[in-house]
Write a structure and sequence with these properties.
Distance between the termini: 10 Å
Structural class: mainly alpha
Helix content: 55-70%
Shape: elongated
CATH superfamily of the largest domain: lambda repressor-like DNA-binding domains
Radius of gyration: 16 Å
Strand content: under 5%
CATH topology of the largest domain: 434 Repressor (Amino-terminal Domain)
Order of helices and strands: HHHHHHHEEH
């Protein structure tokens, strides 16, 4: 997905909301956004970047999650998705959640920081294209 696909963005938002068993009204109240507007977004209306950022924060997703096609996302394992599209991209998070091994040896903090910087660069490129 090279550009924002409004229907795919809407489907991702619907999937996130229903997986948490939230109603449109609940999400709208939490974000102070009209629930009928959220319903239109889920059906394919493109939200403003401000609204999309609020929704990404609410669902604890990086904005890049909405900019990458589902077909590409499905190629990642659940752990990889959490690392790439989650909103906590820190050394402590990576060390806590993942047993990072390269060439049979645990990765050093410096290597993990380098890996995280590459993921940050990837996200930045996706959000700016």
């Amino acid at each position: 997905m090279n550009k924002l696909d409004r229907k795919e963005v809407g489907q991702k938002l619907r999937d996130l909301r229903t997986s948490k068993k939230y109603s449109l009204r609940h999400v709208g109240e939490k974000l102070q956004i009209d629930h009928s507007y959220l319903g239109k977004i889920e059906k394919g209306l493109m939200p403003s970047m401000d609204v999309l950022e609020k929704l990404a924060d609410f669902y604890q997703k990086d904005l890049s999650y909405f900019l990458v096609g589902q077909e590409d996302i499905d190629k990642f394992s659940d752990s990889e998705q959490q690392l790439v599209f989650g909103n906590d991209l820190s050394l402590d998070f990576a060390k806590d959640k993942f047993n990072l091994i390269f060439d049979g040896r645990p990765m050093t903090d410096e290597e993990i920081e380098f890996l995280l910087s590459q993921v940050r660069d990837f996200r930045q490129k996706k959000t700016s294209s």
